[in-house]
Amino acid sequence: MFRSKVNNKHDFIIEKTGDSFIVNGEEKEFDIQQINDNTFHIIHKHNSFKASILHYDIQNKILEIKVNAQTYNIEFQDENDLLLEKMGIKNTKTKMIDELKAPMPGLIVDIKVTEGQEVKSGDPLIILKAMKMENILKSPHDAVIKKILVETNQKIEKNAIIIQF
Predict the structure, then answer these.
(1) Average pLDDT for residues 36-51, to the nearest whole number?
(2) Rounded Cα distance, 122 and 112, in Å
(3) Which residues pair with 70 in a beta bridge?
(4) Is the pLDDT of residue 141 over 60?
(5) Are 48 and 31 contacting, i.e. CB atoms less than 8 angstroms apart?
(6) How far apart are CA 24 and CA 54, in angstroms?
């Protein structure tokens, strides 16, 4: 079972039972065929729909789909989220990291970003040379670089703050 909110307006409680679904307490039958990784063909009440997954953020449980020509943004909660909410624990998301620290002592070889720059999760930020190896330190999440606290050719110690987000 899970709960979904579509376009911040419509709430649905969905349960899958065999080949059918129960949506807000009412049984619905869908014939769903997967065309490729992100595209599905759906038949419901003799109507045909083409659904494509445009974006899926598993960490924040957000899905953007296109059904025929209409785009929908869906936020969802799985059984664990619903159980935590029932227990009164609503804010289950972890705090975003607001600084990047040196994982080991070393030498700053290159700085790949500038202050004020927007970065995506996994973007390279710093090249740190340690134990004769160059290590690429990457962004832990989507962020904006607030302050760079190191310079090229600077030696740093383990846990030194390198960048603030």
Answers:
(1) 92
(2) 13
(3) 67
(4) yes
(5) no
(6) 25
> Residue 92 has which token pair?
């289950």
Domains, in order of start, for the chain: 2-86 (no CATH), 99-164 (2.40.50.100)
Contact, 107 vs 128, CB < 8 A? Answer: yes
Residues sharing a CB contact under 8 Å with residue 79, sequence separation 6 or more, in sequence order: 1, 2
Return the CA Rg of the chain. 23
Are 74 and 63 in contact by the 8 Å Cβ rule? The answer is yes
Q: Which two tokens stand for residue 72?
A: 């929908």
* pLDDT band at residue 162 under the 50/70/90 scheme: very high
| pLDDT-based confidence at residue 140 (cuts at 50, 70, 90) | confident
Q: Above 90 in pLDDT, residue 125? A: yes
What gap in Å lies between CA 16 and CA 31, rounded to an integer? 13
User: Strand, helix or coil at 84?
Assistant: helix
As a whole number of angstroms, the distance between CA 134 and CA 129 comes to: 4
β partners of residue 67: 51, 70
- Does residue 132 sit in helix, strand or coil? coil
Question: In this structure, are strands 70-77 and 2-6 parallel, antiparallel, or unpaired?
Answer: antiparallel
